[in-house]
Design brief:
The longest helix is centred in the first third of the chain and has 11 residues, at 31-41. By secondary structure, this protein is an alpha+beta fold. It contains five helices and nine strands. The chain is elongated and about 55 Å long. The chain has helices spanning 31-41, 46-49, 51-55, 66-71, 73-80, and strands at 6-9, 20-21, 27-28, 81-84, 88-98, 108-114, 117-120, 124-135, 143-152.
């Protein structure tokens, strides 16, 4: 299949193996979001919240938390990947996550991915879905992750 938005019913999931989706639209990562994430997570590393400190680092500016970037999978993926007719959909976990490049505050990211596998899990389907978060103008991705999703009939 070629890259396109995916919108299927739960019963159509077995035919999705190999399907690509995205990219989503660009989304700015703001300092307000970074500050809120630092407060909620307790991760107050000054690279994220202290402008003067961050200016002295190799990045030269404040950067988003890697896990904040990863959490944006929900709104970004929702734009380009939809499964209807499921009684429940869950994030079952991740097989692999890496953060190859920092996300400077104020930069924009987007997501693209594909369905690597679809497995029957008795009453539903498990999907392995590698996704890549791109940084606008960046050479390396901000995050690459293999999501494990389950959708039940």
């Amino acid at each position: 299949m070629t890259a396109a938005d995916v919108s299927v019913t739960v019963d159509d999931l077995p035919g999705l193996e190999g399907a690509e989706f995205g990219p989503s639209s660009w989304r700015e990562v703001t300092q307000e979001e970074v500050d809120l994430y630092a407060m909620v997570s307790g991760d107050d590393n000054p690279i994220h919240i202290d402008e003067d400190f961050a200016a002295t680092t190799p990045f030269g500016t404040r950067i988003a938390h890697g896990l904040l970037t990863l959490s944006l999978v929900v709104p970004l993926m929702r734009q380009v990947f939809e499964v209807s007719g499921a009684s429940m959909g869950i994030n079952y976990g991740m097989n692999r996550v890496r953060f190859p490049a920092p996300v400077p505050v104020g930069s924009r990211i987007r997501l693209r991915g594909h369905v690597a596998s679809v497995t029957d899990v008795g009453g539903g389907w498990q999907l392995e879905v590698p996704v890549t978060f791109e940084i606008e103008g960046g050479e390396k991705p901000a995050c690459v992750a293999e999501l494990v999703l389950r959708y039940y009939r």
